[in-house]
Design a protein that fits this description.
By secondary structure, the protein is mostly helical. The chain has 13 helices and no strands.
Length: 295
């Protein structure tokens, strides 16, 4: 009778270190907000941040890393340019392919399906070589053949293959390759929209293209926006393949510098760091947009 728990045998004794009072909990959680933020981050991201800090410290304090960084960073503009232009053209091509694959015409369905399956089945590096050394000369020959009357009359000059810069050949190859993948993303987004909305538009008297433009496509693009963002990251990484053509991107400049100085470890640390900075930054933006869309 004397020395038991005053609140009863079943209720635990109060812990002086914890409290059920939400005001006290909130007060404690705001003591170290940075610790709370970092505790919610995944370990792989924390390790990546740590490696990035170490590399930045090395660039700032190590003369070799600083020299390599200054030599390689000149290719960032080329990498971003090739990736962005290729992505925009691939978006347009993919949209056309997706619309062709769901159109009523059997011919457009078969042609777009054939193109999509062929492009998705060829490795990107092989496609890059093929477009650059086979497709581009064939395109120039075709243009000269079509413009032969004007060329013979002296109105225009004959197109030379050397006028077709390797940067644009690489952009053409990436556009044709990724256009097939993005087309499938668009098609899946369009097919995810319920048929009731199409039927409702038809009842209102809207044409097929009006329904597609004002009803289906806005919703489809919203649904596949994260997937489209991931494709941009993929193009950014695959843009390193253009170094095989001698295009002066990050990878090519790193290859040239390391071959002349034999500092392969330091050079490719910088190359990897630049790519990781861009891709992880884009991935964070995509996750942010995805969370906003899911609300």
């Amino acid at each position: 009778m004397g020395s038991g728990n005053p609140k009863g045998r079943g209720s635990p004794l109060p812990n002086p270190h914890f409290s059920d009072n939400p005001k006290i909990i909130m007060k404690r959680s705001h003591l170290l907000p940075a610790v709370d933020t970092f505790s919610r981050l995944p370990y792989w991201l924390l390790v990546s941040i740590l490696i990035g800090i170490l590399l930045l410290w090395g660039i700032a304090n190590n003369q070799d890393y600083g020299t390599i960084f200054n030599a390689v960073r000149k290719g960032v503009g080329t990498t971003v340019f090739v990736s962005l232009i290729s992505y925009l053209f691939a978006m347009l091509l993919g949209l056309v392919l997706s619309l062709a694959r769901i159109y009523r015409s059997r011919l457009t369905q078969e042609v777009s399906s054939f193109y999509t399956e062929v492009m998705r089945g060829v490795p990107m590096l092989v496609l890059l070589y093929y477009i650059s050394f086979v497709g581009a000369p064939a395109l120039v020959s075709g243009l000269n053949w079509l413009g032969a009357p004007l060329i013979n009359a002296g109105v225009i000059e004959k197109v030379d293959i050397r006028q077709f810069d390797f940067t644009w050949r690489a952009i053409l190859a990436l556009t044709m390759g990724y256009g097939a993948f993005i087309g499938e993303i668009f098609r899946s987004g369009i097919l995810s929209i319920e048929k009731d909305q199409t039927e409702a538009g038809q009842v209102e008297g809207a044409s097929y293209w009006q329904i597609m433009r004002y009803i289906i496509l806005p919703q489809a693009v919203r649904n596949v926006l994260p997937a489209l963002g991931n494709e941009f990251i993929a193009i950014l990484k695959d843009s390193a393949l253009v170094s095989a053509l001698g295009v002066q991107d990050i990878t090519q400049l790193g290859k040239v510098y390391s071959a002349s100085t034999f500092k392969f470890f330091e050079t490719y640390n910088i190359v990897a760091f630049l790519y990781l900075t861009m891709t992880m930054g884009l991935a964070s933006i995509i996750r942010f947009v995805e969370k906003r869309l899911s609300k």
